[in-house]
Amino acid sequence: MKLRLILLLALVVGGWLFASPWYSMWRIVxxxxxxxxxxxxxxxxxxxxxxxxQADLSASRDDGDSDLLDQIGDGIVETVGGAAIDVAVTPQxxxxxxxxxxxxxxxxxxxxxxxDGFSQFRAVSTLEDGSAGPVMTFERDGLGWxxxxxxx
Length: 152
What we know:
Elements: H1 2-34, H2 37-43, H3 46-61, H4 68-88, H5 91-98, H6 100-103, E1 109-115, E2 120-127, E3 132-141, E4 144-151
Antiparallel strand pairs: 1-2, 2-3, 3-4
Helix pairs in contact: 1-2, 1-5, 2-5, 3-4
């Protein structure tokens, strides 16, 4: 009896470990394709997503160049890019980004899950023509997952 209970528990935990990332990714992509802003708001940490995208933008501009023109260009890119991130990182903005048909008409994303340990995974997309799409990073939130980063 104890062995059956242990096996059942191991099966449930193993099933959750395997299936929950796929299910979470599917729910966000489906909500985006359906334009379901309420569902996206429940599954995405928008404040953290904005912060990580701002940090990625800053890191991409930090090339160590101290030339005045380069610094001015970096400042402009960060200001404009930061404003674009603030506007785009909304339920409606992510719905557009995650629906491939709005990004590249006539194409769709295929998704794959890459695990980064027990508490994090990445959903990696590829367009039908083989080009890379957005990569979503999820972190565990209790027994579920929350989207915390999108890399373009």
